[in-house]
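Subject: mismatched residue count in predicted assembly?

I count 538 residues in my input, but I want to confirm that the predicted structure covers every chain. Input:
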Amino acid sequence: MPEPTAVSTMTDAPTNNNAVIIGAGQAGAQAAFSLRQQGFKGRVVLVGDEPTLPYQRPPLSKAYLAGELPEARLYIKPQGFYDKADIELLTSARVEGIDPGARQVRLAGGDTLAYRHLVLATGGRARRLNCPGADDPRVHYLRTLEDVRGLQADFVAGKRLVVIGGGYVGLETAAVAARHGLQVTVLVARPTVLNRVCGPEVSRFFTQVHRDAGVALCCDTAITAIRAESQYLVIDTNNGYSVQADLLVVGIGLEPNLELAEAAGVSCDNGIATDENGRCSLPDIYAAGDCASHPSAIYARRLRLESVQNAVEQAKTVAASICGKHRPYTQAPWFWSDQFDLKLQSAGVVSGFDQSVVRGDPETRSFAVFYYRAGVLIAVDAINRPTEFVAARKLLDQGLSPSSEVVCNEAIPPADFAATVTGAKPVASHG
Amino acid sequence: MTIKVTYIEHDGTEREVIVEEGVNLMDAALDNMVPGIDGDCGGVCACATCHVRVDPDWADKLPAMEDTENAMLELADARDDRSRLACQIIAAPELDGLVVHTPEGQH
Ligand SMILES: Cc1cc2nc3c(=O)[nH]c(=O)nc-3n(C[C@H](O)[C@H](O)[C@H](O)COP(=O)(O)OP(=O)(O)OC[C@H]3O[C@@H](n4cnc5c(N)ncnc54)[C@H](O)[C@@H]3O)c2cc1C
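Triage response: the counts match. Full output below for your records.
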């Protein structure tokens, strides 16, 4: 008889060394797999309130919305990987409370789960519009697969779509819709699109790109009411004019899901507050992803980021911490957005810059903007410029800051930027 | 139509899988439980976490490397002249029998 290996795994995996992960999204799924990759032997229970396998959200406003991707391709991993890694995935299961004293989480329906390690990966929910008429069923959001399913029937050529919000989700939705022959209007309350996430050169560029594609894009325009006519909606704005729509997509930001943490007494500070190792204020509780805020050494302040990279990296850090390893989360943030034929890749966090310089000519639809604060490079937006993006990630990770003269000189290839910096010491590096 | 692709893991484990034409080799790896590939960006050439190596004999049959893939590969661990991003290799008849080496993990 062979050794009963399954049984012996069970014995070194008592339930008192288990990990419970709340939220089965990008961060939760990554934490589960990373725990196994780091050698965690206990039970891993991944609890999510959505009905499907954990999936990627970026395609929801891109290829999936465009109908170019079947649903199964959204899944982060097929079911077989969960089985093989012995990850217990509970779908359509909502956690309603955490009792840190008793080390238990309470599920809707009354069941409880005991935990030794608890990971909060609860993500966030789309911020709701709050104006008269906002509860009309033709008003949609874009956070979940269910949201996209709900709007697909009306997302067809000829329909009038009004997008509320000029962030990435709004602009990506507008781009897909315009390509599909919908009549698209984008209403943005702020003075520019991508207001908090990009500098003025990039905002101007995307505004032009959308207008060239036939999108009616209006900034400084807040909506005051939505009125239902028999066949369509009328959207009133603070500028005194109204727009007709067959459907609305609202993309006005995310509210992190903090309620569970707050009720359990876990400290929050614009997100569930973690240290660089993903630990929260209470013992054996960790947080990762859109719901978490972490101290950033590069920016010398707390950041709560909404990106795949942040979710994946924080989850890897949390898994390492649970396994007793030290893998601080120090990577420079990065992000991408696809609109029309354009690939925007950004590295770093743009906010707080006092100088921006452009490499290349936006007219050619291929350029990069380098942002500085007090002479130090803090972020780069690269449009159809992957080489600049790659160089930027390395520079930011290493704390290197080439001069603005160097980065706008197209005769110097991006790979050589680092070498132009003298006397700079790397502050962080990664394998 | 389908082709055969063999994935060889870092420890030598070989896995021959059948891939539908038009499917990229990152998705094919996930569909067939091939470990060592993350694909964090979902296959849009934005993250370089589906780094694989392809034997040189196949070089001229592979789709040519675009600028983005070439740039992104600079973020992969220990890039060499066999390095490719699996999401950018689309199964096609001329790749029937292709052999792809997967790393232990992505960066
Ligand atoms: C339309 C769209 C486009 C995007 N595009 C990009 C892009 O191009 N690039 C990029 O880097 N990022 C993009 N993002 C952001 C990225 O998808 C998120 O940062 C990422 O999904 C965050 O992962 P997460 O696990 O923290 O949160 P989520 O993916 O939101 O997962 C959290 C999960 O927890 C569940 N949950 C919450 N509370 C409970 C509870 N009490 N009990 C059980 N389950 C619970 C939620 O229902 C959800 O399923 C996009 C996001 C959206 C919505």
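The two ends of chain A are 44 Å apart (CA to CA). Marking this ticket as 'not a bug'.
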